[in-house]
Amino acid sequence: MVDAGLTITPDGGQTEAAAGHAPRQVRALYTPEQRRRRDATRWTLVQGILAPVQFLVFAISAVLVIRSLLTGDGVTAAHYSIIAKTILLYTIMVTGAIWEKVVFGQYLFAEAFFWEDVVSFVVIALHTIYLGGLLSGRMPTRVLFLVALSAYAVYVVNAVQFLLKLRAARLQEARDATARGAVAA
């Protein structure tokens, strides 16, 4: 069994040393102050509600779109489902930007969530292309649905990014609690 020692750094990060190895920096997702702001803002709850709702609408919409592509049935329902997913996406992006401002002091591209924001913008771009094509009537239904499915594929990548960040935050909190317990002992 490897004995690991954790040391809290002034910026809220940690160094971790395993027996016989030099300490390595473990980058903290949140500083203690950012964690306090995250836990205190109502925008955390808003994000926590919107994210699973958006995922549910995505799952239903993906089924409707694929069914429509395969059978030709339910085209209108598939379009409505994509529009609903797009509205939820825009809503979660705006409220997420507000959350990021409260927690990190900037609306988007905070260091801790930079790549998640980049991928979110790809998802938004693809949804917006879909809407533009639908509203202008310049894209055939099949192409519109393929654009939507492309947006959904990138959305899945983005959802995984956020789930990994949520896991990292929970692991950080567990490490911090362990380190505080070791210091108190």
Main attributes of the structure:
74% helix; 185 residues; 5 helices; disordered N terminus; mainly alpha
Folded structure, characterized:
The chain is mainly alpha-helical. It has one domain (33-174). It has 5 helices and 3 strands; from the N terminus they run E-E-E-H-H-H-H-H. It has helices spanning 32-40, 42-71, 75-104, 114-136, 141-184; strands at residues 4-8, 14-18, 24-26. It has a 3-stranded antiparallel β-sheet with strand order 1-2-3, covered by helices on one side. A hairpin with a 5-residue loop joins strand 1 (4-8) and strand 2. The chain is elongated, with a radius of gyration of 21 Å. The two termini are 22 Å apart. Mean pLDDT is 87; it is low at 1-18.
User: What's the story with the biggest beta sheet?
Assistant: 3 strands, antiparallel
The radius of gyration is 21 Å
Give the amount of beta strand, in percent: 5-15%
The number of strands is 3
Structure classification: mainly alpha
- Biggest sheet: strand arrangement: 1-2-3
Distance between the termini: 22 Å
Contiguous helical run count:
5
User: What is the total domain count?
Assistant: 1
Low-confidence stretches: 1-18
Q: How would you summarize what this structure contains?
A:
This protein is mainly α and 185 residues long.
